[in-house]
Amino acid sequence: MALRLLPLLLLLAATVLIARAQGVGISASDCCLKNSRKAIPSSWVKSYTIQGPESGCLLRAVVFTTKRNKKICASPTDPTVQKLIQNLDKKVKNDKKDKKKGHTTRPGGRPKRQKRQRV
To answer: Rounded to a whole number, what is the distance in angstroms from the first to the last CA of the chain?
Structure first.
């Protein structure tokens, strides 16, 4: 009886191993296949993430998310990319400070317009 189940168990084990190797059953993530060489305007970008082998991707890259929710892949060793990351980190840090103080900013960073008083 055990010999009859052996081929079935081997087939099941092989199926599980192949599925794990292909990433089936694991939360799949979109990975950058190449990095953009064009300069990315800082006014376009709202956030970034870093991808690499630790996130299941072969290419190490910085993935910028634009204000229009587009993804742009860039090289993490590029000096302009590093500067853009620093600027985004500073902005997030300042936004957190403002929220603690009770300040709120409007979209585009514009101050709220004062109403004119009639005399």
So the answer is: 100
Residue 88 forms part of a structural domain: yes
> Can you point out the beta strands (E) in 11-115?
45-51, 61-66, 71-74
List the single range of 72-81, 93-102, 107-116 with lowest mean pLDDT.
107-116
Q: Is the pTM of this model over 0.85?
A: no
> 88 is in which domain, residue-wise?
34-99
Total count of domains within the chain: 1
**Domain for residue 91, yes or no?**
yes
- Other CB atoms closer than 10 Å to residue 36's CB: what's the count? 15
- pLDDT single digits (tens) 46-86: 999 999 999 999 999 999 999 999 999 999 999 999 999 99
CB 85 within 8 A of CB 61: no
Residue 76 falls inside a structural domain: yes
